[in-house]
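[recover] target loaded
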């Protein structure tokens, strides 16, 4: 278990992490979400004693990181895949880590095998692709067979097979009773992987809840209807005191707050043909955007706010490719150009 209590980090006048208190529990995958600059990496760095908190504490299985005798046997982390020594082979990078934590050499071979890097074990890691580097970082995290694993953007640079592999790996490790803490900007991936969510914005805790509860609380559910007799259907719904909103260009109606059963029965009573009667629920991405809208520091469209799609309508919003983080598609370019 990881426990944070009042964790705070200031860089000059900037408060990157602001009195964070939460626990990361064993047996589930806990996702760590927040817009760019929310303080996720700083929090993870403090968990590993790579940054000193301004105030507050982090405990790993009840202890401060620095008091763990052989830390890799308690907590493994992938923070920055490029942190490996580029001039050393994958094998030697891992061997050095293993020796510093009194981990037997045979474990190096085991983790290389586990991440699929055995064929390139003797190659210098500076020649590795982004995906291979991620795999090496994951191998390092697994080296001490720790009960707690932390992954910062683990699917970065992985191909679809690699993404599936890391998803199943994390779920499998959680099923073994380990504590898995993972950050990612890929909401679709997070929705498939995490059972529990910690959401932060501007360094503050915004949510500590199950995935389903998070989506449920932060999204609208509604029913979508399509009919060749749309006007007649609208009149019937209106007559029953139900407001139906037309979706421009989609030939569909959307109804809030009334179940699909009742809508279907009403249509049947009036012999109206339905081509679609489908309950809709917002995705994790939409729920996340709604929750963090006020905590987003960097916006894609200066000087206004990013356009929030209506909940449940992301599929109808062709302006944004599925995996571009909605809170700042242009931020990365701005940051690279501006810093
Ligand atoms: N060493 C540092 N010196 C000064 N400011 C810093 C430092 N490290 C982080 N910050 C600032 O602290 C804030 C939180 O940064 P952090 O990298 O933790 O956010 P993040 O949630 O991981 O962001 P991203 O999703 O973009 O990786 C940002 O405003 C960042 O500019």
């Amino acid at each position: 278990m990881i426990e944070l209590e009042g964790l705070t980090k200031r860089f000059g006048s900037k408060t990157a992490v602001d009195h964070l208190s939460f626990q990361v529990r064993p047996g589930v995958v806990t996702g760590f979400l927040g817009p760019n600059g929310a303080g996720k990496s700083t929090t993870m760095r403090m968990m590993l004693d790579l940054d000193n908190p301004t105030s507050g504490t982090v405990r790993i299985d009840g202890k401060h990181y620095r008091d763990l005798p052989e830390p890799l046997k308690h907590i493994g982390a992938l923070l920055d895949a490029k942190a490996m020594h580029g001039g050393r082979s994958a094998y030697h990078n891992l061997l050095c880590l293993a020796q510093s934590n009194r981990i037997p050499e045979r474990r190096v071979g085991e983790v290389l095998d586990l991440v699929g890097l055995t064929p390139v074990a003797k190659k210098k890691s500076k020649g590795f692709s982004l995906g291979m580097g991620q795999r090496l970082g994951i191998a390092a995290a697994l080296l001490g067979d720790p009960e707690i694993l932390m992954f910062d953007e683990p699917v970065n640079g992985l191909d679809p097979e690699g993404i599936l592999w890391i998803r199943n790996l994390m779920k499998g490790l959680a099923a073994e009773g380990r504590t898995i803490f993972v950050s990612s900007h890929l909401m679709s991936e997070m929705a498939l992987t995490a059972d529990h969510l910690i959401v932060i914005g501007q360094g503050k805790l915004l949510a500590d809840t199950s995935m389903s509860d998070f989506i449920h609380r932060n999204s609208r559910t509604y029913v979508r209807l399509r009919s060749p007799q749309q006007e007649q259907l609208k009149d019937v719904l209106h007559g029953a005191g139900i407001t139906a909103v037309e979706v421009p260009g989609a030939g569909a109606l959307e109804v809030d707050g009334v179940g699909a059963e009742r809508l279907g029965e009403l249509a049947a009573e009036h012999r109206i043909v339905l081509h679609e009667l489908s309950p809709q629920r917002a995705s994790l991405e939409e729920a996340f955007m709604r929750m963090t809208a006020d905590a987003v520091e960097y916006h894609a469209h200066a000087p206004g706010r990013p356009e929030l799609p209506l909940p449940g309508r992301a599929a109808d919003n062709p302006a944004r490719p599925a995996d571009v983080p909605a809170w700042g598609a242009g931020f990365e370019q701005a940051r690279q150009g501006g810093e």
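[recover] notes: The first strand starts at residue 2 and ends at 11.
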